[in-house]
Specification:
By secondary structure, the protein is of the alpha/beta class. The protein is 36% helix and 25% strand. The chain contains three helices and eight strands, in the order αβββββββαβα.
Length: 225
């Protein structure tokens, strides 16, 4: 009789152990990812507060840098779509030409679709500060670029550079950092922060593991009753 009562509990425990192991593994993995992500965000914040460093190639992605060159305003393009208030716009991409080095696609900031004549277009040699943006790769859900109209939805510097007549463009770009409020384009104020949901995920997986243990305990108790 006792063996008959214990056998279902044993089977249930053996069946639950692999599931419990997976749940604990996932919770621990998310906890480790949380530590890594917190460290990354802290390094981004420190980089944001530090002065920009001269551009070194190949650059570290998301590094805050400064670089000198000349804007080629005749090859401006628009990247993405973004609504600000009642206006639809995008980010103004302008090639930065450098002596003896590859041109860089520079995201100077947001502009309305109808750009008109109100944009600031510096002439001659300029020094810009910004963060290094890695390239994106189009996927099945990416909008189709309009190369002829210089409207792009994926930041793919080789493809954009080729469409603009700059086949040797750097395979990364720079997003200008500024205070804003000084006309258009309206530059970025901060470096990007990655999303950090790992604490919630860790709590979820550990919570499911605890719930599984609770269900087993209740099942065993009822079998003994």
């Amino acid at each position: 009789m006792m063996d008959t009562m214990r056998r279902p509990v044993l089977f249930a425990t053996l069946a639950a152990l692999p599931v419990l192991g997976v749940l604990l593994f996932l919770g621990t993995w998310q906890a480790q990812r949380l530590g890594w992500k917190n460290d990354l965000i802290a390094r981004i914040a420190a980089s944001e507060q530090a002065p920009a460093e001269p551009l070194r190639e190949p650059p570290e992605m998301l590094a805050k840098v400064r670089v000198t060159g000349r804007f080629d305003h005749n090859r401006e393009a628009l990247l993405g779509l973004e609504v600000r208030g009642p206006m639809l716009g995008g980010h103004l991409l302008t090639p930065l030409l450098r002596d003896g080095a590859a041109p860089i696609l520079v995201d100077r900031g947001w502009v309305p679709l109808e750009r008109g004549t109100g944009l600031i277009r510096p002439e001659g040699e300029v020094t810009i500060e910004g963060w290094v943006r890695p390239a994106d790769r189009p996927n099945a859900f990416s909008a189709t670029d309009d190369a002829a109209g210089r409207r792009f939805y994926t930041f793919d510097p080789p493809a954009i550079g080729a469409a603009l007549g700059l086949p040797g463009a750097a395979p990364w770009g720079i997003v200008v950092l500024g205070r804003g409020g000084q006309g258009l384009p309206d530059p970025a104020r901060t470096l990007p922060r990655p999303t950090n949901n790992h604490l919630g995920y860790a709590i979820t997986w550990y919570g499911l593991a605890l719930a599984l243990v609770g269900v087993l305990a209740v099942f065993a108790r009822r079998r003994r009753a």
